[in-house]
Amino acid sequence: MPSGKTAWQVKYVDQYGKRRSRQFRTKKEADAYETKVRHEVMTGVHTPDSASITVAEAAKLWLETCEGESLQSSTLKGYREYVNLHISPRLGSVKVSRLTRPQVETFKDEMVAARSRVTARKVVAALGAILKDAMRRGLLAQNVAAGVTVKERRAEDFDEDTDGDIAAIDRIPSKDEVRMMLEKAAELWPLTVVEIGKDGQQVIRPVAWRPLITVTAFTGMRISEVLALTWSNVDLRAGLVRVRKRVDYRRQLGPVKSRMGRREIPIPPAVVQLLKEWKLACPKSDLELVFPFKDGQPTHYNVARKQCLQPLLTACGLVEKPKAKAKTETGAGDMEVPQPKPLYGFHDLRHFAASVFIELGWNAKRIQALMGHSTITMTFDLYGHLLERQSDHSSAMAALESSLFGRN
Question: Which residues constitute the domain of residue 73?
Fold first, then answer.
């Protein structure tokens, strides 16, 4: 080389008869590439660097494919975030033909260290889907992300906030805490309040927060399913609700994500009675929503969280004490004071309902059906420790001993 440095060059003819070459710093790298490229040429799957695209470009093509498959808007939003926030910043400039398995493994480890396992798993899976799509287009010889996965955590390891259906399993509210929440909700929010309108006249305003919290705690529905619940799917005579729809971040109604998501959940008499009373007060909407926003459309998750759950938990004292921080001037001579963080989210009420179902003695298959899990594996991953606790092993062993030895 003109610089005086030694370089190793691999020259070859690709499957289309075109001469190509590539330089390497060491003989070991050159030998490894030569072995790899000759195998790829022989099998007809070689993609030279000059014909390759970057990971960012491949991700853009993959997103275009996803958009053409009529996926739910929330799913597409998640895919874009995986690409824009995680994949492109770290790997976007790398040619897909030069991406290696060690690079993908390092990327996975960085994701696990920086984010929750649920997020890391989804991002790594998205990277694999991007490379698979590039292979389908003939832009890549092999998917180096195939088989790279983030292992499921054991149920007892679920000790951090997550953004998916699996969330903070060790933070299940106790019965006393949920009882306090329901009692406080009744104090804070009657089903209707009388207000003075702009014209000076009295206006009766319905307040949905008490029945919303009650339904969430007793059914274990996802908050997206609760906010999409319609009166046609509430059978007050039979004492059950049917889960058929969900609402996304844009407040648009759509079907539940999977076949197992379509389910029926029994509700106790007290919840039936509360819903009967709420049905009389509930504002009418074209969508027949049980918990409509004031415009008749579905209530946004953030509205329910900020106006319902957070004030309720604060009133109950179910908040974490803020960590001491250096106070800063706010501009008016005041000091900024850290706000207390609620101990629970809506998903924790879902876990509470599951724990109650298990305490009632319902088996794992029924729990799966009630919670709408796509697989029984997910049910055991989440609630296996509770299902084990439900079993009385000593009684089972005593019964086995009695059957073997004929002891009473």
Answer: 55-151
Is 26 in the same domain as 79? no
Residue 305 lies in a domain: yes
Encoded tokens for 264: 């029926």
SS (H, E, C) the chain: CCCCCCCEEEEEECCCCCEEEEEECCHHHHHHHHHHHHHHHHHCCCCCHHHCCEHHHHHHHHHHHHHCCCCCHHHHHHHHHHHHHHHHHHHCCCECCCCCHHHHHHHHHHHHHHCCHHHHHHHHHHHHHHHHHHHHCCCCCCCCCCCCCCCCCCHHHCCCCCCCCCCCCCCCCCHHHHHHHHHHHHHHCCCEEEEECCCCCEEEEECCHHHHHHHHHHHCCCHHHHCCCEHHHEECCCCEEEECEEECCCCCEEECCCHHHCEEEECCHHHHHHHHHHHHHCCCCCCCECCECCCCCECCHHHHHHHHHHHHHHHHCCEECCCCCCCCECCCCCECCCCCEECCCHHHHHHHHHHHHHHCCCCHHHHHHHHCCCCHHHHHHHHHHHHHHHCCHHHHHHHHHHHHHCCC
Q: pLDDT digits over 235-267, tens only?
A: 999 999 999 999 988 888 999 878 889 999 999
User: Does residue 1 lie within any of the structural domains?
Assistant: no
Question: Residues 284-315: pLDDT tens digits?
Answer: 989 999 999 999 999 999 999 999 999 999 99
Same domain, 66 and 208: no
* For residue 328, pLDDT beyond 60: no
Q: Is 374's pLDDT higher than 50?
A: yes
Q: Is residue 122 part of a domain?
A: yes
What pTM was computed for the model? 0.61
Does 266 share its domain with 399?
yes
Same domain for 234 and 360, yes or no, is yes
On whether both 265 and 389 belong to a single domain, the answer is yes
More confident residue, 36 or 372: 372
Q: 388 vs 173, which has greater pLDDT?
A: 173
Q: How many domains does the chain have?
A: 3
Q: Clarify whether residues 241 and 383 are in a common domain.
A: yes
